[in-house]
Amino acid sequence: MSVLSDKPKDGLPHTEPLRGSEINEAFARFMPMFYAHINSILNRYKTNQYDLNENQIKVIMAVSFLGQMSPVQISRDLHIFKGSLTTIIRGLIEMGMLNRRDDPHDARKYYLSATDKARMLIREKTARDAARMNELFLNMPDADFDKVCKGLSILSDYLKETEKQ
C-alpha cells in the first residue's frame, strides 16, 4: 500500500510505503476478531475451583516463569497499577497460588514465588488453551495456519529486538 508522503524528495511530492498506516489497518481488522475469538481462551480461566481474570493469570504466569518477582517488578513489567496489584496479590496468596517472602534487608519489600498449585494450574490451563486453539483453527488450511504462526513469531522476535534498543 502506498500513500502520499509528507516528505518530498527533490521538492516534489511522491509516494512511498507508509508502514504505520498499513500495520495499523491490519491491527484494526484483527483486534475485534482477537477479542471475539482468542482473548477469552488466553485471558480467562474458569473451572469449578477457580475463576481467574486476565491480570491474575498474567501475574501467576510471570512469577512462575521468572521464579520470583517483587510487586514493583510485576507492576512495571505487566503494566498493572500498584493499587490494583495489591488486591490481585492478596487474592492469589489467599488462593494458595503465590508465596510471599519478606526481604530480610528491607522491611518494606517482599518477593513472590509461584506455588506447586500455581504451576499445576498453569499446566492445566496451557493444555486447555491448546485444545481450544486447536478447535478454533481446525478448519484453517495448513498453509495459512503455518503463515499465521510464522508471522506471529516474526512479530514477537521483532518486538523483542526493539526492547533492546
Description:
Helix content is 62%, strand content 12%. The protein has helices at residues 19-42, 54-66, 71-78, 82-94, 116-137, 142-164, and strands spanning 2-4, 15-17, 45-46, 51-52, 98-102, 110-114. The chain has a two-stranded antiparallel ribbon with strand order 1-2. It is globular. A hairpin with a 7-residue loop joins strand 5 and strand 6. The two termini are 28 Å apart. Helix 3 (71-78) crosses helix 4. It has six helices and six strands. By secondary structure, the chain is α+β, with helices and mostly antiparallel strands.
Q: Could you list some keywords that capture this structure?
A:
165 residues; alpha+beta; globular; two-stranded antiparallel sheet
- Rounded mean pLDDT is 88
Structural class: alpha+beta
Number of helices: 6
Helical content band: 55-70%
- How big is the Rg? 21 Å
Characterize the overall form.
globular
User: What is the CA-CA span between the terminal residues?
Assistant: 28 Å
Work out the number of β strands.
Answer: 6
Spatial arrangement of strands, main beta sheet: 1-2
Low-confidence stretches: 1-5
Portion in strands = 5-15%
The string of secondary-structure elements, in order, is: EEHEEHHHEEHH
Largest sheet, in brief, is:
2 strands, antiparallel
